[in-house]
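Do me a favour: review this protein, sequence plus structure tokens, and tell me how the chain folds. Record follows.
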Amino acid sequence: MRIFVAVADTLHMTRAARELNLTQSAVSAAVAALENRHGVRLFHRIGRRIELTQAGKLLLSEARAVLARAAAAERALIEHSELQRGSLAIHASQTIANYWLPPILHRYRQRYPKIAASLTIGNSRQVAEQVIEGGADLGFVEGPIDEPALADRPLAGDTLTLVVGTGHPWARLDRLDPARLTESDWTLREPGSGTRAEFDSALRSLGFGVDRLPVTLELPSNEAVRAAVEGGAGATAISRLVAQASLRSGALHELDFPFPSRPFHLLWHRERSRSHATEAFIAMLPEASGSA
């Protein structure tokens, strides 16, 4: 197509060959091959000059359109590889989406303003499902996910903290003996959330379990849990990122309790290639302490 258009524009085999950096015989052979394949004459040979036939004029219009589309496709690929075009779909659990990811997303948008980055919130189980199904390029959750299709990389995270409202009997304590855990009602995140799974894991390391607590409320958001506990709905274990504003204001009281620090986890599908936009975002993420 490129050779044909060059010959049609110059109406001269030799000049077209010079522009294309080809030999005149190669250009002539390419035009002849195109004519023979379709059984048409594209050029009239009149003496030492050539003219487009009716078929040649028809092909020229279509050939220009084909080459324009090819050039546009090539530009799109170049822009994509240079992060001048593209998209990034992120799904994250609530704590990460509301408190940890926003400043990273802001920096990413400042550096790559032409990448359309979206963030969707769900619990850890929902996030993992979206990465598996292809609805998310990357997933961020608060605990490890046991799913063979997913790659899992730990990132710098935070820690759970045990908090009560200022009117709670434990608000006069600095430290809570684990043996007293059953003395209070509890408000917790719903099963399936990373916060709930991490709390259960921490208790089991102490020979305990969430199933032994008098759980009176299970709520689907960190903010709902925090507000309920501020209002007197027992005790809870939530991310320190979630609790820190209420702790500063005095609306919540924190008790010293042996929660381990917890990394967040980055998920992606093992069998899907990662785009340049995805790789650029991953490069901006803080590593977990001690990770390679």
User: Anything to note?
Assistant: The radius of gyration is 32 Å. The chain has a mean pLDDT of 90. DSSP finds ten helices and eleven strands in the chain. The longest helix spans residues 54-81.
